Amino acid sequence: MKLTTNTQISVDGVVQGNGGPDENRGGRLFHFARGGWARPLFDDEALAFVGEFYQRGDAFLFGRRTYELFADYWGVKEDLTDPIVKALNTRPKYVASNTLTNPQWAHTTVLSGDLPAAIRELKAKPGGELQVHGSGALTQWLLANNLVDEMALLICPVIVGQGTRLFPDTGPDIALDLIESRAFPKGITLQIYRPAGRPQYATTTD
């Protein structure tokens, strides 16, 4: 399977609180004053793209915190005519966690221990896409370990100005090949990239 990530991100790289101001962190609620910056920018075309993306997924990979958020929201929905509900509730889900032991969401497997090996084993299985939605910390780790095949960024036309960013101040340098680009009516732009090794750097100022 091809490992693809799907991330809603602000122009200044923030991924925290895209859906709302409250995020569940280990059973506690943290209020992020600037949360909810992405939702008002999703028009019908952008929402349709998200639904189509989920439908392509043969399996889903989450970090623990995003998994718990999704389980609490999507895991209790029963309307299988909704493409996201159907995909998430009927297809295999994997959680990268050394602490989660008894997941309640059906079709869930916990990955622990040698995580790179476990993910490579998943990628070696037949199928189309192993998808990562949200899960900013996991996406950072996957990129650093050369496990991402394609990265879809839904870039929202907003500067949040604070919050957790997808790309840290110090991290791996990665060249990217642009696979697809499009714009949606409210200004969200989609950029789909394929990692392509290390970037080339100029050696002269001429």
Q: What labels describe this entry?
A:
206 residues; 8-stranded mixed beta sheet; 10 strands; globular
Helical content (DSSP H or I, runs of 4+): 10-25%
Write the CATH homologous superfamily of the domain at 1-7 and 47-173.
Dihydrofolate Reductase, subunit A
Report the oligomer: single chain
Radius of gyration: 17 Å
User: Order of SSEs, N→C?
Assistant: EEEHEHHEEHEHEEE
Class inferred from helices and paired strands? alpha/beta
CATH overall fold name of the domain at 1-7 and 47-173: Dihydrofolate Reductase, subunit A
- Given as residue ranges, the uncertain stretches (5+ residues, pLDDT < 50) are 24-28
Overall residue-averaged pLDDT value: 92
Q: Which strand order do you get reading across the main beta sheet?
A: 6-5-4-7-1-8-10-9
Describe the main β-sheet briefly: 8 strands, mixed
DSSP summary: helix tally: 5
Strand content: 25-35%
> Termini distance?
44 Å
